[in-house]
Structures are given as structure tokens and as C-alpha cells.
Specification:
Elements (H helix, E strand, L loop, with lengths): L4 E6 L2 E7 H4 L5 H6 L3 E7 L2 E7 L6 H15 L3 H14 L4 H13 L3 H14 L4 H13 L3 H14 L4 H7 L1
Length: 171
């Protein structure tokens, strides 16, 4: 099941979860953006070996719908984007790209409670997903609940310390 996280196995430690955002520091983002997959990283001495694993439910239709939904969202064609994202969600209900896409759609259209619901579904599977953490924080800001916003933005900054935009929100 693809939940947007990466399974990391170290020969001397138990497996740990790493978000795709954390992994982008090691791999070019275009690789991460092009394949909805799980990546297994294993450390052998200091050499990192990367192995792609396609989840069982991943398919090209979901990937195509995800890209189409993001494009429609950028074009501000919100109703069309919603249709596309929901169609993709039916095919793959735990896909992190789709859940973030729906969260972003509803946050942008000021349907903050719906946005939080989709981000929360992703956070259940990957509690350190930076896109969901930032989206929930921004959604709570939209609902004028600064205490809750701060909670999620702080969690976000624990993972992504250099984000000046979120730091300014906390100031």
C-alpha cells in the first residue's frame, strides 16, 4: 500500500519511515514526482542503494488522473479538478498524491473542514507527511484556529526546518 512514505531499512537498525519530502534531498524531485511508488533504501556502509517497488494498486490511470487533477487545480478549474481527483481516489483510496490534491483543492476553495479530512487521512498513514502537515496548519489558519495551526506548523518545521514561509506564519 502506497502511503507516500518511504521504507528505509538499515542493516543494523529496524526499519524507519522517511517522507518523500525528506528523500528529495537524496534524489532528484522529478524522480519522486513521476512514479507513485515505494522506495526501499538500504545503507551498506556509507553507500546508499535505491530500489523501486511498485505498489500493487498503482496503475497508470491513477498517475494520469493525478497529473490531470494537479493541472486543473493550477488552472483554477476547481470543479473539474475535484471530479478528476475523486475518480482517482476511487481507484486508489490511500494514494498520497490524490489525498494531498483533494486537501489542497478544498483548502484553496475555503472548504477547510473537508481539506482537513483529506490531509488527516494521509497523516494517519504517514504522520510526517510535510504536505499534509502544512496543509492542515493552513486550513486551521483559515478557520481562525491559531492554536491548532501552530501545532501542525511546528510539526512541519521539525521535518522541514528551512521553510521560511512557515516560520513567518509562526512569528
Amino acid at each position: 500500500m502506497d502511503n507516500g512514505g518511504i521504507s528505509c531499512h538499515r542493516s543494523f537498525l529496524s526499519p524507519v519511515r522517511v517522507s518523500q519530502h525528506q528523500l528529495k534531498h537524496y534524489l532528484p524531485w522529478n524522480i519522486m514526482d513521476s512514479v507513485p511508488s515505494r522506495i526501499i533504501l538500504s545503507w551498506t556502509d556509507l553507500n546508499i542503494q535505491v530500489k523501486w517497488e511498485m505498489p500493487v494498486q498503482a496503475n497508470s490511470e491513477v498517475l494520469t488522473l493525478s497529473k490531470q487533477g494537479k493541472k486543473l487545480l493550477k488552472q483554477r478549474r476547481y470543479h473539474d479538478a475535484e471530479k478528476v481527483f475523486l475518480e482517482a481516489l476511487e481507484l486508489e483510496p490511500t494514494n498520497s498524491y490524490i489525498l494531498v490534491g483533494l486537501g489542497d483543492l478544498y483548502r484553496i476553495t475555503k472548504k477547510y473542514h473537508k481539506a482537513i479530512d483529506y490531509y488527516a487521512r494521509l497523516l494517519e498513514a504517514d504522520e510526517s507527511n510535510v504536505f499534509a502537515l502544512r496543509g492542515v496548519g493552513d486550513s486551521y489558519r483559515g478557520l481562525r484556529q491559531p492554536e491548532k495551526s501552530i501545532e501542525f506548523w511546528q510539526r512541519y518545521l521539525e521535518i522541514n526546518r528551512g521553510d521560511v514561509h512557515v516560520m513567518v506564519r509562526l512569528a
